[in-house]
Amino acid sequence: MKSSMEHFDARDEMADFPEELNVKAILEKVKVFLVVKQLKEDSSPNLVIPNLYIGCLGTVLNKNKLYETQITHILSVCEMPIFPYQAEDFKSLLININDSVDQEIKSKFEMANEFIHSAIKNKQNILIHCFAGKSRSASFVIAYLIKYLQMTPLQALKLLQSKRRIAQPNMGFMKQLDAYHKELYRQPQIQKEQKQEDSSSVMKKVKLNQQDEHSGQFNVQQILNS
């Protein structure tokens, strides 16, 4: 005996849908809606160190927030055809790169660091952003911390994640950051100069020690801080 319930075939039902109803197009629109919603919710920059902020595309598009935070410089490290603002609004540098493990970025660090430092040394605020504020922008923040705060990549990442939890360069970027750190601090000439600086620092501490012993005022904390 045949069942009175008709057999349901999803493919048959889909065939009856109007041609203008494109499911893929609908899904793409939903995806765009969710992305826009996320960007709006994540539109405030995160302060990493004095004058240095990190954010996403939603941050850079929130012009009122940029003015409120007194941002004067913007480093964009993502795929953007043009910078969204006029030159008189902000000083900007655009580096078009993909968020891919195969993307080469190390050669861009020095150029980016010079731009970042041009703002920070004058106590001006700079925003570094990519699309999500997670991988590309994080990589360039870390590169700056490596060079100017003498941090290791992991130390810089830990500091950054304490300010922006989602920050995480992809594996390819982390390898390039490690190579950048080695280039800066492990070359023979750098090591030689570092040893000379360390030797000079030790001599200063010894002299200070001797002076304090003669005066009867030996101060351990002063030596540690010198």
From TrEMBL:
Annotated segments matching region Disordered: 190-219
Keyword field: Hydrolase, Protein phosphatase
Pfam families named among the record's database cross-references: DSPc
Reaction catalysis annotation: O-phospho-L-threonyl-[protein] + H2O = L-threonyl-[protein] + phosphate; O-phospho-L-seryl-[protein] + H2O = L-seryl-[protein] + phosphate
InterPro entries noted in UniProt: Dual-sp_phosphatase_cat-dom, Prot-tyrosine_phosphatase-like, Tyr_Pase_AS, Tyr_Pase_dom, TYR_PHOSPHATASE_DUAL_dom
Tagged with keyword Electron transport: no
SMART domains recorded: DSPc
Listed GO biological process terms: signal transduction
Coiled-coil features, chain-numbered ranges: none
The keyword Transcription regulation appears for this protein: no
PROSITE patterns linked to this entry: TYR_PHOSPHATASE_1, TYR_PHOSPHATASE_2, TYR_PHOSPHATASE_DUAL
Every Tyrosine specific protein phosphatases domain range: 106-164
PANTHER family (alphabetical): DUAL SPECIFICITY PROTEIN PHOSPHATASE, DUAL SPECIFICITY PROTEIN PHOSPHATASE DDB_G0269404-RELATED
Family affiliation: Belongs to the protein-tyrosine phosphatase family. Non-receptor class dual specificity subfamily.
Protein name: Protein-serine/threonine phosphatase
Organism: Paramecium tetraurelia
UniProt lineage: Eukaryota, Sar, Alveolata, Ciliophora, Intramacronucleata
